[in-house]
Amino acid sequence: MKKFIVSLLSVMVILAIVLPSQALGSDLSNQEKVLETPANEKAQKDFSDIKKVEKYISVDANGHIVLDPKHSKNFHKKYDLDALEAHFELLNEKVDNGTIKINNDLSIEDLSITLFASYNKWTYHWWGYDRNFTNSQAIRYVNDLNTVATGGAIAAGAASLFPIIGAGVAMTAGYYGLMATRVTANNRGNGVYVAQTWARVFNVKPL
């Protein structure tokens, strides 16, 4: 009887240790899913909404991309079109420098052979840019993002991390840290797709 009681107590002690740990692991896993899903959904929703601005965009006779002023003040504020116009200024400077060409369908050609070679190629769009990262490239990208986020070298590192927008929009260390977190969360060994708009809305998807 005494041995039975000792054995029973031993089992109870083990269960008291193991079960809470399993429950905690389950809770953390569920929490990660709860935190991750709304973030991705919001990013995709905002990314989709921003494209509503496209009908107000055109290319003039000089090959410059311009914003049609015929839109409401509320629309202008909602989509942060001041930032878009600043973004267009940067793009138009690149047009004048012969770095890029903006076509009438708003597609953008990169005319520079060595531009941003350290990350292969970003594809330029009127709204920003995007590209695919392999697994190893994504890991390197995350390391660079974290370096900028923790090292206080945001201004110096921005151009390589965000080729167009980083040069014209101030971003905090927290932003770079969040981007690193999203890339890590979506890289499942096959790399990721990354896109960012002038309004600093980014979208990260697993490949």
Characterization of this structure:
With 207 residues, the protein is α+β, with helices and mostly antiparallel strands. It has one domain (47-206). Helices cover 53% and strands 15% of the residues. Strand 3 (100-102) and strand 4 (108-110) form a beta hairpin. 22% of the residues are buried. Residues 2-6 and 11-39 have low confidence and may be disordered.
Task: Provide the fold topology.
Elements: H1 2-50, E1 57-59, E2 65-67, H2 73-78, H3 81-96, E3 100-102, E4 108-110, E5 123-125, E6 128-133, H4 135-151, H5 154-161, H6 173-186, E7 192-197, E8 202-206
Antiparallel strand pairs: 1-2, 3-4, 5-6, 6-7, 7-8
Helix pairs in contact: 4-5, 4-6
Query: What is Rg?
Result: 24 Å
Which runs of at least 5 residues are low in confidence (pLDDT < 50)?
2-6, 11-39
Total domain modules: 1
Arithmetic mean pLDDT: 74
* Alpha-carbon distance between the two ends: 60 Å
Biggest sheet, open or closed, and with what strands and sense? Answer: 4 strands, antiparallel
User: Which percent range describes the beta-strand content?
Assistant: 15-25%
Helix content: 40-55%
CA-based shape: globular
Order of helices and strands: HEEHHEEEEHHHEE
Which structural class do the helices and strands define? Answer: alpha+beta
Total number of beta strands: 8
Physical arrangement of strands within the biggest beta sheet: 5-6-7-8
Q: How many helices does DSSP assign?
A: 6
List keywords for this structure.
two-stranded antiparallel ribbon; 15% strand; globular; four-stranded antiparallel sheet
